[in-house]
Batch of 2 targets.
Target 1
Amino acid sequence: MHTLPQQLANGLFLGSMYGLIAIGYTMVYGIVQLINFAHGEIFMTGAFGALTVWNCLPDGMNIWAALPLMLIGGAIVSVLIAVGAERFAYRPLRGAPRLAPLITAIGLSLALQQAIFVWYPGADNAKDFPQLGTHPYHLGSIAIQRNDIFLVAAAVVCMVGLAAFVRTSRTGRAMQATAQDPDTAQLMGIDTNRIIVIAFAIGGLFAAVAGVAFGLKYGQITYNMGFQAGLKAFTAAVLGGIGNIYGAMLGGLVLGIAEACATAYIANIPGMHQLGGQGWANVWAFVLLIVVLLVRPQGLLGERVADRA
Amino acid sequence: MTDIPLTEPLQPTPLGTTHPDAARSDSFVTLPPGVARIATLVGVAGTIVSTFMSWTYTSAFPGDLTVNGYPGGLQVLTLIGAILTGLVALGAFGVKGLTWLVPNRSPNAVLLLAAGTFATTWYAVIAIAQELGGLANLNPGGFVAAVASLVLLVGTLGLPIDRQPLDPSGAEYYELGRLSENGPARGTYRWLRQARLNHGELPVPDPARAPAWVQYLTIVVVAAAGVKVLTYGLATGYTELFIGYLILVVFTLWAFIAAGLTRQFSKITADHRPFAALMGVVAAVAYPFVQNNEHWANLGVNILIFGTVALGLNIVVGLTGLLDLGYVAFLGVGAYAAALVSGSQYSIWSGVEFPFWAAALTGMAASLVFGVLIGAPTLRLRGDYLAIVTLGFGEIFRIAVNNLDGVSGPKVTNGPNGISQIPDLSVFGYNLGDPHQFGSITLGRFANYYLLMLVITVIVVLVFTRASDSRIGRSWIAIREDETAATAMGINGFRVKLIAFALGASLAGLAGTVSAHVTYSVVPNPYQFSGAAPPNSAFLLAAVVLGGMGTVSGPVLGAALLYIVPEKLGFLQRYELFAFGVTLILIMRFRPEGIIPNRRRKLEFHQDEALLPAQQALGDGTAALGKAGA
Amino acid sequence: MRHRSLLLLTTVLTTGALTLTACGSRSDDGKKSGDDGSSGTGSNITLTIGVDAPLTGQNSATGLGLQYGTQIAVDDANSKKLVPGVTFKVKALDDKALPATGQQNATALVQDSNVIATVGPLNSGVAESMQQVFATANMVEISPANTNPDLTQGKDWASGKKVRPFKTYFRTATTDANQGGFAADYAYNTLKKKNVFVVDDKQAYGAGLAAIFKGKFASLGGKIAGTDHVNTGDTDYSALVTKIKQSHADMLYYGGQYDESELITKQLKAGGVNIPLMGGDGMYSDTYIKTAGKAATGDLATSVGVPVSTLPAAQNFIKAYKAKGYPGDYGTYGGYSYDAATAIINAVKTVMDANGGKLPAMNDARAKLVDAVQKTDFDGIAGHVSFDQYGDTTNKQLTVYQVKNGAWTAVKSGVYSG
């Protein structure tokens, strides 16, 4: 049985999730040049927000009916935290050297993670998350989960929606202008503060969608799931060209597929039989990043200013 | 870019009757000046007397506060606080012979000390009532202490406290944005801004006019007192005492700053830098002799290792402005390199046992090689990419050493089991693993390693200071400030950055060689980005930023605080990391330049505050123009 | 004026320093008398048993099981007055699963003149940095959870050259060698599995277990369909599942903790690979079944000792743990911790009996305790407790459990003999 199609599909699903989270990094970076390290935790809190909604709903409720409510609940939590972080932690530091907000972000990330760990009931172990059934569909030799279909569909919808929003709406164009040159944009009458808040909010929204998709896909969420996912998503954002929303999605997909292929095939290369497998997959992901940066420092799609938002 | 609302021109606030630039003093509680002074002194006397009384009838509260006539535990802290408050108050009131305690004649120091005494006392009283279940457990002494310290606090609140100049109206818009339209929020905020104490600009006499021997003696006494205070804090046997200690120390230091004593002291140390440095080293050497306890020596070694690595990171982050998020990996490279040549039977070269100097050089060289390997390709890229690449390198390092065990990778590091049973070092025939007698004092294993690590720390401090004062150090700062301009001035940006990166890496590797021997083993787990305890990359970065970027003492102090405070505050347990995260956010928000600020850094962070009054003086139009162009 | 002020400064500082020093000695006295006072009678002494385990952060659920397992043993000993005249208490320190922190805790326990012996740590990597500290101080350390054979049998144990590195180190958990071998035997001979895929988490415990299973299974004649390693904290195993599917393995053996294995078994079954997952005592926990849900059905785990349900003492332990509402996970190592603490308490009694009913001076007592613990011999809640010449438990009783109807059910219990 040939496994390449299945591994590509595995990578595609994983990559869609990376991409969804990476958009949050890239939008914020594109506008305020800030690496929002706490974004992984915003993704995590979104998942916990959705789980709280599910636990509040009556037992035995159909998951398809509950899903919209869970998405809304997760989004409210994530967006509130993202916007709150911007308002009270990052904005006061806007003029400061760039290390200051970065340390704030690390602190925020620790605080959010620990807050869930300490105060969310039972979060010191993995928490169960409802799934959309666990029986796979078969498409030729590829087994696909319903949960994965949801993930890919969500990624496509979010991506198309965001592209339309940035290109056509007035706010979206204001975002592009702010990304290009915040001072000039402000002189042109754009309320840059509002634009920055919107960038954080959209990042939070997508993180919440990714958080719900994560819970559905793996059937469980943990308080520390944001760190790994955030690290990978940030890598994806840089890989695709940080500041570029299409690049973030592409970077995510490339990274996911690279990881799946590294797990499956590196060990088959003569002389590398010890350096393959799941254990080394993260290493190969970072090696890929470094190689791309050396060959193409601006990332795969580059930081094309026109598309940056 | 700053976002002053241009529609609202800057105007002197209608609240202030004086010019905003002028000095201002105002009491918090309106009392006749004489009454305030008397209340202060009465409060001091009452508090002192109370510590000689019994505070509670049972010895169940730690420290046994039941004895009459002999203060113990938290009472001692209250007593010290009260005595200091009294002396400083007398100095501030102009009593001859004590005025040197308050060089700037400001009563702010009295207020802060009184607040510290009050907080310590009330903390003790509340802790007694809470732990033993009710106020009934307090003896009269406890009530006397509470009342007297309250009188003291109220009295000092009635003194004419020096305040910051008033803000122009609309200043709150910076911080509050839309919230500034909300009455209560604006009122609270405005009150808080006005309540800020002013102690930065008050003039103090130049201590250089004092005789030289006085200046030297001051340095000696301060160093001795520093060791004493530190060892006392470490030796506090129970959490309540440590919290009381922490409250008192923080307020006392703040009071000394407010009195202008620290300014005078830093002037003295600046004038006698070699002597001050020598005294610092002597104080550090004295630590294991004064605090003759293996556990605290062990803690001391770990703090020194952590602090030294933070100092190395300070070259990269603080001086050169490069963001390294995987720095702990270099510590790991050094530790693993030293472990491999240590003669441990778990090393793949188990026959090889290098002497310490060779092992240290090996560790440094290994880290240097990795530093250049990582730095050379990525330092050509923009700054933010360095962050992600170093973060990736940190992860790669941890995963790789975990897998290089001959099963899932080449056999080098013995994988997750690590290299253990690393033999103790022997320097000039002095085996660091055995206890050694020095007169009546026995130096145990960890005290020996503490002294060895101290030598390494001194070397790193020397490297750091010499490098930062040199031509290359100035190039680093130039690169940090403006890379484009620096390059235009002929600095080879890439080369200079690579030197900083490699130097920082090799210093971490040097510290790593000692750490491998101290813990007897090296395993992959501790070398991660963020974890529960130092050293990991996030904590290292936090130590540098918390202490003060670009300074020598800052990161070491930051490292010590990050190590000691969680160690002593056992009650926080599961809240510890949460508290750490929140603290980082708050510090960045309110004191981003760190505890010990680099002068240049401080200006950078507080640009607005420094410029605002000056611009005000020029008139509205210029100010607005200046800001818009800034 | 300068001179006078200087004099004042020196006086103030000296006074301050003197007062501080005085206070230090006084509070120590106070503490001791406080201990005496709290325990009621004048002749009663209080002894502390140290615990070192990760009490916060990632491994804390298991680590807290160590702390409160010990706590229950101490409570039982105090209420039953196992050692007349001695009240035991627990001093639990958090090592955060870091070697340097563990070592610091070790020096703190050694320095504390009330601590007689220590239970812990959880992680083998932490134990490596602590063993020497305890050995130097002649203080007994009993780990209820370390499974790396190196810790007791030296580097070359596999080739038969066993050397005990530290005579103060004991453990109530069995080494990976026994468990891995027993599991391989069961998988090959009872389950008739011939083609097993082996995965481990690259931690000291999991990698050791998986390596021993692999060796034993191959030597029995089974085929290893493939091997892989994961990182702790990974969540996506879809690529691994595809690899396992392609290998046509009929069982997956996983060396590691339940944090990862519950995700692997779920993704395995969801990927259409319906083969059982087998693991060691690191995943013998109710949390595994709870989180993995239906996917866990049919999965197996080995654990040391006879099934808890056959021992009334063990049931009392679980009841006590639940009744007191202690946090953490008692399932994995709580029983071993209880036995480790009981071994210490019994040894204290032996030492005191040999000394005419009194405890010798602390340094002496600690040294004598090493010999007394070595001679431990009693029935604990996880089986018989005694130590061989390496400090390993002689309890070779192992049980295989399988998930049936949402609970671990014992399917085979026996003694593993190499």
Note: Residues 1-20, 610-630 of chain B have pLDDT under 50 and may be disordered.
Target 2
Amino acid sequence: MMQMTGAELILRLLERQGIETVCGIPGGAILPFYDALGQCDTIHHVLARHEQGGGFMAQGMARVSGKPEVCLASSGPGATNLVTAIADAKLDSIPMVAITGQVPLGMIGTDAFQEVDTYGMTIPLTKHNFLVRDANDLLEVIPEAFRIAMSGRPGPVLVDVPKDVQCQMVSFEDYPPVAVPNALPEVDLLAIEKAAEMINASERPVLYLGGGVIHSGASHLAVTLAEQGGLPTTMTLMALGTMPIDHPLSIGMLGMHGARYTNYVLEEADLLICVGARFDDRAIGKAAEFCPRAKIIHVDIDPAELHKIKTAHVGITGDVTQVIEALLPLVQVKLREPWLAQVADLKQRFPLAKPDLDNPRSHYGLVQAVADALDDEAVIATDVGQHQMWVAQAYPFRRPRQWLTSGGLGTMGFGLPTAIGAALAAPERTVVCFTGDGSLKMNIQEMATLAEEALNVKIVLMNNNSLGLVYQQQSMFYGKRPVASKYKRAVNFLKIAEGFGLDAVDLDTAENPAATLAEALQRPGPCLIHCSIDREEFVYPMVPPGAANTEMIG
Amino acid sequence: MSMVIERETAAVTKVVLELEVANHAGVMSHICGLFARRAFNVEGILCMPLADASRSRIWLLVFEDERLEQMIKQVEKLEDVISVVRHGAEHAVFERLETFFR
């Protein structure tokens, strides 16, 4: 017979689940758990400076490891601060378990100090959530939270634990089994046969890969499928890295800021094979005009994604790995010379323009210079905005989980804490966080966490002293009337970084910026690399919101 | 009653959904929230525990809409929903309740 408090039980169950690092901030309602954590030497706690930062650190770990990771917050403002990181994990299907403290059971519903309805608030943001009313339930709830977070389409799960439940004594015979993901859905072989027939009969097929390929660990299989069937392959923002960008069949990222030729190739396609993607509006533009000539095969582990935006001719509910494995023996080897020649012709006529690529103080040049100084082992995180799109367009991604970005929710402030999480999960790798001055200020306090943990994170700041993508949209679509997008005062980020205890270099004043950058990237430990860029440089091409992908500007 | 007749003349098809769910606090919130945040109107709701008290049955009266298939798939995804069965408007459950709403 074992006997322990609810708090200790949570801790033992996290240990059994293989959790080695948790990120968060303590507060009144979660103090019993932190007290138990303080007596535990197997789990490393990383003290964030804002709960949202802690949430994104857990996301960074999960995006690199592929496993559910844990963040912690207290009740009330702790939980409300965490909400953005949870919503972000939901939209990008990232496995995460958030544990929040709650006011004692008897005080719930009394407007107690730091009480908020965390359970109600997180219903629409989580894959599932729990309010634990009895510490005995933890034996079931904690493994369930992990099982749900990692089964099928991954996602965030929240467990809200009142303070007295954390203190309650529990007696039990045995620990519950360690949670494992649900069995995968059975593959519909008839649908697979139909899909293979369509691929074999098509003349101008395109393979369209999404983040689900990465979640399933199927990148190499997707590349094999493309090679076997002679399939030009486009990737969503979430899928960058699944096929190396310099692979002859890669046609790069599609959508709002994709290259012209990529969107033109999709316009010509007679078959679209969508694997682990969800026809997001930023990827497909105006849905009715996307791939107007193509039949659609759609593979997704979430049945609710099939026929949601575009009706598929063949919809297959399944794990991407299993579906591709079943497809491969049925897909004929094809060279598709006429189609690939047409694709090559479009690529040559409408390539992505990357002006000033040799200048490390220009936006594309800085991305290129970082890539030149690193190898494919580095992890590249971004914040949200122009810099994110320039990195997505220009960085040579060559492996899954190399690229961490906030795709669905588009959360400014994502980059720095996520990069910290990535470095916690993979301390042997160099982690770069490309950011903008707008985004960096949204979680800049995590510089303190970074300095404290002394992680190998390099913040590459593209500073145009504005909310660049807002300024761009106002310039392009709102009569060149910038409103609230230009900062009136500049911030001295170098001093701020130094104040937090980070190394900092300024490419603006460097005699040889490429060398200064490379040195900073090679030097172990955290560093801010600052570079001013031109506010009048926009992300091109751009599909106006709501327009068809062929209506690109620039 | 006049409302019902109006809708019938407007040829709006009613659908009755029968859900079997885990019986604990919060399940109704999960289900109602799913409909509400998609601006999908639920006309009637009925929920009672089953003989096996660990489960409840929920009856929902909704109107046929092009989004209904997607709604049902989203309901099926909820962790606490065990099954969803779709019935036509002829199902008696809400009709027999009408006496309580006169």
Note: DSSP finds four helices and four strands in chain B.
